[in-house]
Amino acid sequence: MTDGNLALKKAGLKVTLPRVKILELMQGPENQHISAEDLYKTLLDIGEEIGLATVYRVLNQFDDAGIVTRHHFESGKAVFELASQHHHDHLVCLSCGKVIEFSDDVIESRQDEIAMKHNIKLTNHSLYLYGVCTNDECDHGDT
User: Fold this and answer.
1) Is residue 113 marked as binding?
2) What is the pTM of this model?
3) What CA–CA distance (Å, rounded) separates 89 from 107?
4) Is 89 annotated as a binding residue?
5) According to a count of CB atoms within 10 Å of the terminal CB, is the N or C end of the chain lower?
6) Which CDD domains match (predicted)?
């Protein structure tokens, strides 16, 4: 049994071809922070005939099971990444949509201090920083 099949079983999901194919694609580094529509197009490109509604349904099931994490960046469209073992935050370019993952111990420590100051025990958090790439490779548009 593959790692993907084990992940599905552990999450209480039946091992089906659409779930396995979607999970396999999500494991590629190029498919992190991918929308359901882009995942669907990738499936079509590799000859998999899995409907868009099925892709949405599977991603929702994966999100509910903790296999993927859903993000709502500034574009307004949900993107998904595999739920990781390590916490990280995100930098998002508002022009080209590039997403950079980063970790910073100082930021994490400061967030904990702020929560304690306000008598809040953090159970989860997300940090998204938005801006515009400063390199020539970014499609800045009109910004």
Assistant:
1) no
2) 0.72
3) 10
4) yes
5) N
6) Fur_like (cd07153)
